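Annex B. Sample input.
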Amino acid sequence: MPSTAQEPKSRSSPSARHGKLFVLDLSGARIFSVSTDASDVRTLVTGCRHPDGIAIDAVAGHIYWTNMGVPSRNDGSIERADLDGGNRTTVVPQGATFTPKQLILEKKSGKLYWGDREGMRVMRCNLDGSHVETLVQTGQGESDRRDETRHCIGIAVDPERGHFYWTQKGSDNGNIGRIFRAGIEIPAGQSPSNRKDIEVVYDGLPEPIDLEIDPETRTLYWTDRGDPPRGNTVNRAPLDAPKGQRPPPEIVFKNLMEGIGIALDAPGNHMYMTDLGGSVYAAALDGSEPRVLQFVQGNLAGIAFIPGL
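Annex B, continued. Sample output.
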């Protein structure tokens, strides 16, 4: 009997668009940009405190990024600068978030969403840093904080269906990583720690990290930094497959060196990835047309794409 599980929809042949990539370098404490043809590498911001997640507001001309700070000190923050690195300002000050990781700008609501690793939270705020909220709380206190299965890492938002997704990677190569989803708004009468609408989308993953959504094909993409064969990969799966009928994740890119960041140019049928080994990669969404755009650039974390620059 044929399976009724939904497979990711396909796009037409690759048609990569010219644009600019913005990349975070953990070891260099900086943000740099590079064109998608691998030219014009520029350092934009320096002195970042372990930067991890990045989001671009191309209309307003802003870069937003998270600083993890020192994980034991509860001193994470979120900053903003112009696309050329000027006018740097703090949006969420140190201590308002513990260890912020991947960052997403949800344009419809004008909100920033992020995973807070040692804070064991999924959080959001307005673009000016006001109205900081906790949407999910997976633990409290030092004992829970030592449990890596509670750590919230990657984040993606699906305003069309009213959901957000996040990863909890678990221990190194533990094969206990999970991807969750919940409603964008907490159900009435519930709280971040006891909300009943949380669903496990995938479990038993090596170490899922950052997430991205292709809204046209309704496909979820993610990096996994665990060991091969399933780790150090880019994976994808349909967003809307019914519970109990989800197909196994499809591996579309391999041989990352501790894969972290991912950015989609869905209209251009391309994706861009980073790893802690210091490389920036490009490929079509199905993994074909692979290229290395940069290498030996430090320990690379978040990446963002905007077309046309």
